[in-house]
Task: inverse folding
């Protein structure tokens, strides 16, 4: 019988254990910071009804949906009525509409789950990936102050992830639309198309955007195109500079004035939330491609690795669940695409393989003494020290080699001599050092060693 080749489909990230630990620690750091700011966890099913997911607001992503069908339905030739979620926002909208009367508003949720998209197979693009989202959803209204809180969460997350200096960049869609209106681009659909082109500035360059805006599709004059390009290249170096550049835009339509007022309030509050001015800035090119953003928009970039692109993005929307309920549910949210971020950070050498989550390996010198080895392991585990016991024996050198390869730093040896003297030998594989410790002092000694190892790295 021929063997089936062991293989995974393109576009998935499958990690070895020590890399999985590094990934898991990033997830834990994000979760810890989300909870620190008072966000509550939810999970939604990976599979939703297709008509719930395909609400005609997801844009390009809706053309990348994986449909789901049982074998029974396939045999009967039925069309799929189920699909895998392609993001966490559409399921959130369904969730809030369905549980609206049981939720407390403003509803502050975080969600960290896998999503699925039929991406073209290429390096760094994933068909299955983790998204880590937070949103604040209001009932009928939601203060602009929440727009300022989310950058504080972003700052807290990435400061603890410790992946290098970063900047949270902000803009406001109302400001952009108002500015376009002042240039004679009044049609909302054309404004949206221009927004999408502007969003390509960092990836495709000013020349490409200029050519597109003055081309056949848009037909804008060279003068208008230059004004748009000048507008979207505005950046701030400090909070005072941001206020000055917003004021320098001059008077404009109502949307521009409203957007400017909102940006000023948000920028000022971000500082009050404890985010240093070095970590946030005005960037009038940030548009975000999705149509449902209506006000504040965010993108976060690593200062020393701009080629990675945005590592966290999001914004304000006016009515999250309009497809499912008549209630008005405005909100603001951010998302970290963790699978792609982890992969990019690893490629850039910014994250490394983690150490094992196992602290200690208890070796086996004599099968007859297995109860003594298990007693040591039980004591260590009761003290909160993750411990593995060698259950099959073998040469001691082979057991050391196993511990080293598995990333276990400390090895405990309890041989005939140690048992006779009432001591334990502890070997530190990283320092290539070993010492004896009285059996009664083992837990305290290992705790000290592990604390020092955590500090020293």
Result:
């Amino acid at each position: 019988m021929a063997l089936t080749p062991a293989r995974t489909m393109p576009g998935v990230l499958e990690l070895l254990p020590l890399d999985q630990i590094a990934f898991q620690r990033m997830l834990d750091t994000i979760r810890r910071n989300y909870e620190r700011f008072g966000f509550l966890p939810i999970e939604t099913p990976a599979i939703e009804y297709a008509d719930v997911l395909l609400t005609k607001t997801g844009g390009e992503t809706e053309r990348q949906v994986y449909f789901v069908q049982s074998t029974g339905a396939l045999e009967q030739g039925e069309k799929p009525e189920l699909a895998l979620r392609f993001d966490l926002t559409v399921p959130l909208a369904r969730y809030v509409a369905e549980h609206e009367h049981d939720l407390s508003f403003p509803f502050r949720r975080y969600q960290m789950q896998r999503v699925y998209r039929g991406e073209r197979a290429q390096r760094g693009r994933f068909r299955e990936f983790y998204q880590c989202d937070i949103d604040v959803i209001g009932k009928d209204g939601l203060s602009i102050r929440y727009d300022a809180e989310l950058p504080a969460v972003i700052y807290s997350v990435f400061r603890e992830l410790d992946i290098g200096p970063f900047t949270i960049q902000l803009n406001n869609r109302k400001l952009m639309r108002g500015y376009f209106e002042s240039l004679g681009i009044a049609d909302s659909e054309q404004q949206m198309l221009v927004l999408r082109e502007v969003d390509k500035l960092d990836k495709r360059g000013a020349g490409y955007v200029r050519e597109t805006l003055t081309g056949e599709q848009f037909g804008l004059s060279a003068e208008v195109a230059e004004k748009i390009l000048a507008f979207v290249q505005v950046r701030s170096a400090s909070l005072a500079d941001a206020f000055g550049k917003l004021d320098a835009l001059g008077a404009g339509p109502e949307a521009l004035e409203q957007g400017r007022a909102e940006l000023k309030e948000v920028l000022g509050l971000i500082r009050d939330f404890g985010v240093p001015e070095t970590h946030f800035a005005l960037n009038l090119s940030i548009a975000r491609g999705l149509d449902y953003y209506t006000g504040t928009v965010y993108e976060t970039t690593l200062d020393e690795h701009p080629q990675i692109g945005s590592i966290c993005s999001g914004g304000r929307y006016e009515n999250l669940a309009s497809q499912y309920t008549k209630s008005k549910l405005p909100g603001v949210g951010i998302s970290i695409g963790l699978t792609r971020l982890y992969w990019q950070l690893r490629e850039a050498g910014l994250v490394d393989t983690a150490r094992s989550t196992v602290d200690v390996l208890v070796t086996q010198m004599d099968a007859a003494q297995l109860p003594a080895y298990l007693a040591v392991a039980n004591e260590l585990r009761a003290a909160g020290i993750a411990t593995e016991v060698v259950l099959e024996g073998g040469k001691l050198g082979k057991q050391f080699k196993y511990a080293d390869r598995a990333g276990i730093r400390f090895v405990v040896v309890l041989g005939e001599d140690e048992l006779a003297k009432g001591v334990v030998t502890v070997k530190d594989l990283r320092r290539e050092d070993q010492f004896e410790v009285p059996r009664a002092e083992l837990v305290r000694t290992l705790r000290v060693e592990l604390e020092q190892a955590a500090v020293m790295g």
About this structure: The radius of gyration is 28 Å. The chain has a mean pLDDT of 91. DSSP finds 17 helices and 16 strands in the chain. Residues 10 and 121 are 6 Å apart (CA to CA).
